[in-house]
Here is the input.
Amino acid sequence: MVRNQENVLWSLLDDFRNYLWSENGTNKKGEFDYIPSFNRESMNQIGLVIDDLPTQQRNDLRNLKFLDAGCGKGLIVAMARAFGFDSFGLEIRVKYIKEALKVLYGGNAFIQVGWQSFPEIRKQNILKYESYGRYDVIFYYSPFDNNNKEEEFEERIEEQMKVGAYLIANRKQSGKIYKDSRFIKVMPGHPIFKKVKK
Ligand SMILES: C[S@@+](CC[C@H](N)C(=O)[O-])C[C@H]1O[C@@H](n2cnc3c(N)ncnc32)[C@H](O)[C@@H]1O
Here is the structure.
């Protein structure tokens, strides 16, 4: 890989991401702690979704709702906001929600992107959530260590998603979506899907 400045910056960000952000382990309920997804890969995935959007939607992302289900300390929510989406996060652990609110409102991000909406971070068990149909883009990165719970969570989202919505499904466990004619895979080699019919 060419060691240009961009690559060096990404490498640094990932080093700091591990040091500053990661928590290790799971709990007895089979829920992972906060282990942030890789910045560069996530950014690439969100970029691929934007490239696939119909032109009218692509030109004004403020009208599109982006959700990170199990958002931890909010890095992906911050990233989606920086792209210009109307951004949301759901998280079960209050200690992470507090950190996410510091990330999203503690710095000067609002001044930099002052025309954007305020992201909303809500305490919510994503296994019980009933409003996945609100969102245009749903992102997750392995919230459950327990495979049964992970599959239940994934299939819940796939049922509720609206037609036209995108799913970025990192470390997906359930394979049902690959045989489900309601979904197409947006890009070979990436876990990105679009719901195309009811
Ligand atoms: C592996 S981390 C991923 C964090 C973030 N999505 C990212 O990509 O950077 C999984 C997150 O899911 C959260 N989580 C696990 N079980 C959950 C549940 N039942 N409801 C809501 N959040 C949950 C964890 O607390 C943790 O913050």
